[in-house]
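# nightly structure sweep
# worker-07 picked up a monomer target from the shared queue
# config: single-sequence mode, recycle default, output format = structure tokens
# input follows
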Amino acid sequence: KEKELIMQKNHRKMLPVISGILLIILALGYFIYRSDFKLPDDYYDYSVKEISSGDKTVFIKISCETVLDNMDKLDSGIISGGYIPEDGIILPKTEYVLEENDSVFSILLRAARHNRIHLDFTGNTGDISSVIYVKGINHIYEYSCGPLSGWLFKVNGEFSSKESSGHLINDGDFVEWIYTCDLGRDVGSIYFEDTSE
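# output follows
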């Protein structure tokens, strides 16, 4: 009888622990269910529409040429990782079919997945009202090459004041993603310059 009482006490002590473990398992299961996890091969297994006669198209280029003149500022992990192409061109000018409601960001996402280029961003691609911020391309991040470094884009040679998912593109547009090491000044942008006196 005494043994039974001890077992009952132990069972009562274990109930909160078991309940906690079950809650954690349920929460983890819900998180996995609601998340869109993909293995790298699944994520990059992305086919793009072949260009046919009469299709509307856009062009995209990704470059980090400014880094070549600032290798002394570059994070050592990026250098050892081999993420900087010799000519600074991550993706040469490439043509894609223009899809409905394509933006500067959507063409970047499509090109990155199609060419297996690493892309890191914040925001929700499934929500058109979500602001997308590009943090890193090809493992090169903002601040990877000094405190004023990061990614900018221009369309048809002009830098934009809009964010990338809100800047819709048209037939024939040329989107360039450019890495700056000096808040845009080294790539011809005056948008971020300090105009205060």
